[in-house]
């Protein structure tokens, strides 16, 4: 079901991105895409609650709410196209294009078994090689499982950083800039994210295998330290990418303004001042 919802969301977003700007019904297509994208995120908290990953529970709910805000804004832009007349950039269309492009890159790895197995196997081999380089007696217990000191960790698609890589690729491609700047932004983000993710996986397996944090070593290393470290790293990488592609700042500022305006409108309606 989740996969079908995702494909429907991407199909609407892609149709919106490919529709000429003069056709205002592209906004309606985009709004529908963001609704299905929100449904995709709202389905997921149950899975993360089962594995006690509360960080991701909060994250997917927040992303789902953001999707609904963008959908609502695009629907308003469809009904009242004059809203865009006084704006320097069409932020919702830019965000829709970036999400569609990133999703097109990500979904083949999520849906096609050959690509799924290839990237998981590649990351597993790279993690094992790095652990051996650090003189850790890790061993391959299955094609995607690494054992250390009697403890085993399975490498899954989420351990490959493909979601973050797809996000940056979508953002980089979606802005209008010279190709040299696109290439530079790609080189300072995608390879760096992949390399840092290998280090994160090594840290999690080592922390679990050597029980650095006691009985809950995996949860502490993976759910807390790993996610905080990933967040800081992605923030730093995003800063460097924005220095290379300042056009991205306009998109991010626009999304931030969209969110704050939606919250203000909701608050006005709640307190009865609208």
Automatic annotation (TrEMBL):
Q: Where in the cell is it found?
A: Cell membrane
Q: What class of enzyme is it?
A: hydrolase
Question: Which molecular function term from Gene Ontology is one that the record holds?
Answer: peptidase activity
Its transmembrane ranges are: 27-43, 55-75, 91-110, 117-135, 155-173, 185-208, 220-242
Is Cell membrane among this UniProt entry's keywords?
yes
**Any one Pfam family match given in the protein's UniProt record, by short name:** Exosortase_EpsH
What's the Enzyme Commission number for this chain? 3.4.22.-
Identify the GO cellular component terms for this protein: plasma membrane
Its placement in the membrane is given as: Multi-pass membrane protein
Keyword terms? Cell membrane, Hydrolase, Membrane, Protease, Transmembrane, Transmembrane helix
Superkingdom as given in the UniProt entry: Archaea
GO biological process terms on file: proteolysis
Active site residues according to the UniProt entry: 159 (acyl-thioester intermediate), 200 (proton donor)
Name it: Archaeosortase A
Q: Which organism is it from?
A: Methanolobus zinderi
Q: What is the lineage of its organism?
A: Archaea, Methanobacteriati, Methanobacteriota, Stenosarchaea group, Methanomicrobia
